[in-house]
Amino acid sequence: MSRTRLLYNSDTWDAATVTASSAVGDLVAGNAVNDFLARPWRSASDGPEWIKFDLGAETTITQVSLFGVNVTSGATVFVQAHTSDAWTTPDLSQQLTIATDADGVVFDRITVFLAANNAKRWWRVTFADGSNPDGYIQVGRIKAGSYYELTRNMNDGFSIEHVDPSEGSPAGGQFAAYRIRNRYRRCALDFSLVGNTQRRKMEAVFSRVGNHKPLVVCVDPDTYPSEQSMYCRLTTPLSTVYDVVNVYSQGTFVFEEITE
Questions:
Q1: CA atoms of 141 and 231, how far apart (whole Å)
Q2: pLDDT at site 175
Q3: CB of 259 within 8 A of CB of 182?
Q4: Domain ranges for the chain
Q5: What SS3 state is found at 185?
Q6: What pTM value is reported for the model?
Q7: Which residues contact residue 97 at a Cβ distance below 8 angstroms, ignoring those fewer than 6 apart?
Q8: What is the C-alpha to C-alpha distance for residues 37 and 19, in angstroms, rounded to an integer?
Q9: 258 pLDDT above the threshold of 90
């Protein structure tokens, strides 16, 4: 069983030259590598459409995650990669699974993990979603790179809290008017009996993202890669307890999902 995975370094992906089959107004392709979900890329139709990334050189990508996606359960979405900007028979063409909750509601996020032998310069994501009621494809953020899988997983008893930040003034016996806000999750993970390799790696992660730069956390990469992925930020400091020589505990990491 795979352990928790972190995608915290997407610098090469984010520096790519990004183009798309179409875009509407200022909702251009480059918005997909901007950290603000509220400034998405939006296509002119619901497909076929594509968004393409020229990484400048062959780069190994083992995770691609899309957030703020408006596709339906009938959508066909592929991640493709090739050695050149030619797409008749790309070297990699993998269809993505559209994940839903227990009521069949489509999640607005998709995560796929790829083999480590896919070092390519050119990458793209294609969409076809003819039944989309919006009439277009929209993606708030596409984050990709090489994930880090923890050498020692979090302790049992970790928590995932679902939060509704909608604003209103409820009163007894009344249905109050609310300003509806996007729900988000808050995940708390504890790590103990950690060796030097993971301790140093988590220090490197914190050095890069701190408490302000988004990363992607997936606590169940095997069974629920999309459902259990979070585009989030770390809200706690990195606290390391030196238990005994070369064995550490690293406190509680709290990751708060970004949905707006």
A1: 9
A2: 81
A3: yes
A4: 5-148, 159-257
A5: strand
A6: 0.94
A7: 110, 112, 226
A8: 18
A9: yes
